[in-house]
Design a protein that fits this description.
globular, alpha/beta, 5-stranded mixed sheet, 2 domains, amp nucleosidase, domain 1, 490 residues, Rossmann fold
Length: 490
């Protein structure tokens, strides 16, 4: 077999489009042709043996050339490029991202009055990703086939699957073009595969508004609320999806049990436009929080919020009080290599207002009365669940100096990754214990707390998301999240 000889689909020239929907339809055709070719070639190889030449197909791409320095409306945070040049991005699963792509391409055409070019890139599609959505086809482990897989097909390449664009480490592609989108196709495919594995639900079910929690109690309550929402068609929710992609469309429907328990149980209260609410139980710890947000980020959600439990650090707080984070003390360490600790994580006004208004609505308190059950301040996130067992002088001093009001193991990680990935973020925690004041989380105390507080807390999170959904995208995707030379796509 010659390494420089490839069996590939028929080559096609780039086509020019001035209509966003037509451009995306072309992306879908090219992607379907490429993945279909790889799938058939793999099936033939399994049945007939090793092909006579290497097999390769390429991701489709979007290219855009902007010739002018013409000034764009300075109020816009996305949908435009900052200077003349050629911009490009590889694309995967255009069927999954159809609405997003039409929206983003349409904004570029509108703001720059230029067409886009759609064609094949020079980035190969790894076989594993090409057949990932075919339930009848799986790629076996090394040694099962009578030939070495990577001698014939392209496999995932971690050397090119990275966060260089969002981390600001890649300002140009190898061909000299500027990045058009925050993630490459291989990076997106990698995360789509991880999401299916960790959550036991297909990426197609994820909604644009994501709630993270760290306790199963919230999951049970979310299902209860989802069933009530489905029973009220006026709310606009159409389906509830649980583990194993089991779904119901009516409030009294029966959910089939999942065949496996995923690491991060995930549930989706869906709307036809994708603007429903997804709840992810990430469990405990910053590593889980980073893993979940690393992969969900490629879906380009409009907001994600943490609605978990925390340790209250002030004696004036009571169990069940809310803590609205307006700053974060990052002692989780999992993002130190990607986002240096000196980078500030700002509070986003739109998120803060939505959360505060949702607390007021659900509790029926406002103004000075609201302060009795909610405190705004710094939330500290650490990587040691048993921090209380260590010498208290150092940790407590840092907590006091930072003016922290609450401590957990996920919130700063989720907020920092939101900042890094340009996903609007926020945190509303509920005090479940006060370790500095002798109120530890013990079984009896915890049971009573959960029964009375989880429902109210989750209602606040859902209502905040519904408020955010009513905002224009240009308002919620704040310019505060955009860097100097930002990608045009959200």
């Amino acid at each position: 077999m010659q390494d420089d000889v490839f069996l590939t689909p028929e080559a096609r020239d780039h086509a020019t489009f001035s209509d966003a929907a037509a451009a995306v339809a072309c992306l879908e055709r090219l992607y379907a042709e490429a993945t279909g070719f790889l799938g058939q070639a793999f099936s033939d190889a399994v049945t007939l043996g090793k092909p006579a030449a290497r097999v390769r197909a390429y991701y489709p791409e979007i290219r855009l050339t902007v010739p002018s320095h013409a000034k764009i409306d300075s109020r816009l945070s996305f949908g435009h490029v900052s200077h003349p040049g050629t911009y490009s991005t590889t694309i995967t699963r255009p069927d999954l991202f159809r609405n997003y792509l039409i929206q983003q391409i349409g904004l570029l055409m509108e703001n720059h009055a230029v067409p886009v070019q759609i064609g094949l890139s020079d980035t190969p599609i790894p076989l594993h990703f090409a057949v990932a959505n075919n339930p009848d086809m799986t790629v076996p482990h090394q040694g099962v086939l009578n030939f070495t897989l990577r001698d014939v097909f392209d496999v995932p390449d971690l050397a090119t699957t990275n966060d260089d664009i969002v981390n600001g480490q890649r300002t140009r592609h190898d061909d000299g073009s500027f990045p058009l989108a925050p993630f490459t196709a291989q990076r997106v495919d990698y995360s789509l595969a991880r999401l299916s594995h960790y959550t036991a639900t297909d990426p197609i079910h994820f909604q644009n508004y994501v709630l993270f929690t760290n306790y199963q109690f919230y999951v049970d309550e979310f299902e209860f609320m989802a069933r009530a929402a489905l029973s009220n068609p006026a709310l606009g929710y159409t389906e509830f999806v649980a583990g194993g992609n089991a779904s119901i469309t009516e409030g009294d429907g029966v959910l089939a049990p999942s065949s496996k328990t995923p690491q991060m149980p995930t549930y989706h209260l869906k709307r036809a436009d994708g603007n429903g609410i997804t709840l992810v139980n990430i469990g405990v710890g910053p590593s889980n929080a980073k893993t979940a947000t690393d992969h969900i980020a490629v879906l380009r959600p409009h907001a994600w919020l943490m609605v978990g439990h925390c340790a209250g650090l002030r004696n004036s707080q009571s169990l069940g009080d809310f803590c609205l984070a307006h700053a974060y003390l990052r002692e989780d360490h999992v993002l130190d290599d990607d986002l240096p600790i000196w980078v500030p994580i700002p509070a986003l006004a739109e998120i803060q207002i939505a959360l505060q208004d949702a607390v007021a609505e659900v509790t029926r308190l406002d103004g000075y009365d609201l302060k009795a059950i909610m405190r705004t301040g710094t939330v500290a996130t650490i990587d040691n669940r048993n921090w209380e067992l260590r010498d208290q002088s150092g940790p407590v001093r840092r907590l006091s100096q930072s003016r922290a009001i609450a401590l957990d193991m996920e919130s700063a990680t989720i907020a920092a990754n939101g900042f890094r990935f340009r996903v609007p973020y926020g945190t509303l925690l509920c005090v479940s214990d006060k370790p500095l004041h002798g109120e530890l989380k013990l079984p009896g105390m915890a049971s009573a707390f959960y029964k009375t507080q989880v429902s109210r807390h989750l209602q606040v999170g859902i209502r905040a998301m519904e408020r955010l959904r009513e905002m224009p995208l240009g308002q919620i995707h704040s310019r505060k999240l955009r860097s100097f030379d930002e990608t045009a796509f959200l």
